[in-house]
Amino acid sequence: MARLGKRGRLPGIVDVAERAKVSPATVSRYFNDPDIVRYRTRERIRKAVEDLGYVRNRAMRSMVGGATGSIGLVIPTIDNAIFSEMLQAFSSALATHGRTMLIAAHGYDLAREAVLVHSLSEQRVDALALIGLEHRPETLAQIERQGIPAAMLWNYRPDQDWPCIGFDNELAGRLAAEHLLALGHRDILFATAEERSNDRAADRRRGALDAVRGAGLPVPEGRRIVCPYDIRMSKELIAGTLRAGDRPSAIFAGNDVIAQGALFAATSLGIRVPDDLSVIGIGDFRGSDAFEPGLTTVRIPARRIGQLAADALVETIDWPEADFHHEHCCPLELIVRGTCGSPSAAG
Amino acid sequence: MARLGKRGRLPGIVDVAERAKVSPATVSRYFNDPDIVRYRTRERIRKAVEDLGYVRNRAMRSMVGGATGSIGLVIPTIDNAIFSEMLQAFSSALATHGRTMLIAAHGYDLAREAVLVHSLSEQRVDALALIGLEHRPETLAQIERQGIPAAMLWNYRPDQDWPCIGFDNELAGRLAAEHLLALGHRDILFATAEERSNDRAADRRRGALDAVRGAGLPVPEGRRIVCPYDIRMSKELIAGTLRAGDRPSAIFAGNDVIAQGALFAATSLGIRVPDDLSVIGIGDFRGSDAFEPGLTTVRIPARRIGQLAADALVETIDWPEADFHHEHCCPLELIVRGTCGSPSAAG
DNA sequence: AACGGGTTTGCAAATGTTTTCATAACCATC
DNA sequence: GATGGTTATGAAAACATTTGCAAACCCGTT
To answer: Which residue of A has its CA nearest to B75?
Structure first.
């Protein structure tokens, strides 16, 4: 059971002080700036801390103007390959800075996002990271009013009001589409994610469509389907479209999960990739390179975004005065593997 | 910028009190037990809170003996399909209870796990969830000394000292192996995860090996390889083994990621599944059903574990006296899809 | 108008830590 | 052994909230 201090609670700084025969102030200094306490005293305190099993209390420290040491991350969803790499990088970068990560998922619901931001404010997070650039006004108002350092992740557009660290989703869409166009595709199926509450998905599709229309090609309504971020469901939806007689020569997938679904759909229908059908994704998730053939995709520097975001936020916390320009538009890279080829003569 | 209260900081409960012309105590009651404050007063406070943009401060509340409202989860890794479903369920179940989730990953390093537990103790989490049953003594000592309610997740063995919510990993291994045996396989390759700091992986392999040896079959050293939880690397390792002349008739994969790697390895070598090679996994991750053919596997009730764990911990926090018996051994289910068949006559 | 009972509110103490300012201890030098 | 200059420590205030206790209030009865 819990070892109790004098007052029946967990041992506090004053219990340690008593035992080490010093004042609480000295114990505080022992932790926050050990060098200014004499060696002999330090040893006595060290021993007392060890005997009592004292653990510092960050909640209390935050009272006197200190920080809580926890940083909030508000994310659409956790159980998805999309963000988990970034999450991991963010989390471990924070750990190296001695911070911990409070995380909350809103399930692509911006109204819920506002609630989560409020809840994280109650926890007095030292900083906040949100995904995407579009948020409810009350969400942003809350953050501003509380004066919480914040950054918007994953999407990048120039001239934003908030620090943003991400990449150009429109460009990602364009790069993928242009690759298909360059290979000679003229009939492309656009399988993209639901765009409500998801500016990233919207930007990608816009980029892709702009490229195609810029090439003077039409994009009929029937060539656009909305897929969830789920391999199984994407597979079924895309298979449904492919089964119809008039088959596109290529599929532009809003992300790798959808692309993987497309690949399986093709396999299940006996359609050869890339001979009879080309597929391109966005993301380059772990595992996309293992497919047979390997998925051609646009690589998103997920780990880098997580790392940069953590560093940026900690920097802002530690030097509140300095007005850093935390804007990073991470470079994208087209990864050509085996799922894209020129359209067959038949197509 | 941040809207400041009278004392230059964020508005506090006393700023609200002043503005509503009541005492701080009443404001406190307004939040914690609204019914005991009169309607007229309540309205005045509501207005003051709104005007000032006051946000309650959980860290402060915890001072007077209250809870911080955050629950810690210590996990081997985030960026992996393995845990993310559980994570999501855990997180959203906590949210419905008005709690937030502090999460930290140790990268399958139990020494680091101890550090993380200490760090979470400093944050005064109300409860703690760890993955697996084996932990450093100092980790457990820390939790006990601090009196933090804790639960061990993901693995289940009877008669544990700690509440545990998970499933029988040994049984999972046995179920998978027995399925292969029942189909007539006699030469099985065991592709399992590194077992240091991973009791789940060890239990699964033990279960599988026991089943095979119980059937009187040998398991030569060459039929056991260690794979990381990574599709690409698993694919390469397994392809290396399959390329060797003497090929097994089936692969037992320690989890679905490894199994997926095996499937791609087979495809890349032109080995037909299930005709020339059977593959079975453990986990039934999202997407495993989309493979062609669908992956035969043992389903782990990941979401259920997350949900149960969250409920159990919150229950323990809210009724510290009651001595709940929080032990759940979630049932497993063999999911037969298309990757397992009888060994070909040639095998 | 005084009374009575329940409901609502205020006062003040308590919580664990940091921090400012003042004092005490130390050490080298004369 | 007195002096002066560091350096190390202590006392007390401050932080934002909750809570036990007591006082004030309200409203219907006498």
So the answer is: A88
